[in-house]
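Handoff note, outgoing to incoming analyst
You'll be picking up this chain. Sequence as last confirmed:
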Amino acid sequence: MKATDAVLVVVVAILLTACAGPTPTRDGATISEQTAPRFAVGGPDAEGYGVRDGYPIGDRSTFFVHRLFFVGSQSHLDEIFEGRVIRKAVTPSRLTRVMEPAIRWDFQGEAFTLDDYLARNPATGLLIARGDTIYVERYQYGRNDHQRFTSHSMAKTVTSMLIGIAIAEGRIRSVDDMAAVYVPALAGTEYGRTSLRHLLQMSSGVRFVENYSGTDDLTTLAASTFLQWSDGGVAAVTPFNERVRGSGTLFAYASVETQGAISRRRSGSRSARKQTRRGSSTGRGKKQRTAASTPCCVITRGSDCSWPKTATGAGGRSFPPRGSRTRRRCAWTSRTCVRAW
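Most recent structure output, in case you need it:
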């Protein structure tokens, strides 16, 4: 859930220009002070976020309402809700580290550095990587590189990869099938009459207002899932049943799209088990390199359907590998890891 003063859980930036640095070291080897992650107990308005109380976690009714719990909850969400562990890779893909470069930029006539950014923004973690190389890894508010940060919408990428894998395995026949074919509970609803393709493209045409006002449809959806005002899963989706335009005609960002339910039904297992088996290895055979270097977690909200639009929890270094490193692993094995539609 987004708010003006919400904590930025993890910021993952891609450097578009090459950065100079010393001879790199490998993640997992002895890390020098120059290349090690940097940690800070405080951060902007640390008092308001609970530094005196050790950044308390809160509970289901308070964790995203009161800012005192914003920091603690977003790195301990699997302690507030039921979660399923995605086991870490036996042989994780290794990340190269270099000494943090001097990064500066100008904005409105002023010069800024990363120190300025972190002093002004309540980011619990900032990680900048390019390819397999980590250039910056910093944490504030007492967070560290062993905690599982809530991914929020980065989980959408993982979910779409699981759909592609399900297609490759023959569990989904076509992205042009209607959603109700795979989730019968959606039959008779506008989402059920929408193709998987248009759900994946966020062009369902179903009305869903996501403007982060605190009174929008996303707030209602969060109450039905996070706060469990409904049974969750499909029951949280069916109230949004007004088609305002033809499907496939306009992209409209909406966290309500139902790919998580489809993936779970067609994989025969919850998202966590499927990600453990496929999502983290994206390749066949025990010798394939894998991305996740720490255990991850998928929050299930106590319903029959995982909530992968927002709630994969992972260590900061587990996020950068997902896209670029999946592509590299495919190149290593000369095979298609995730099938195109």
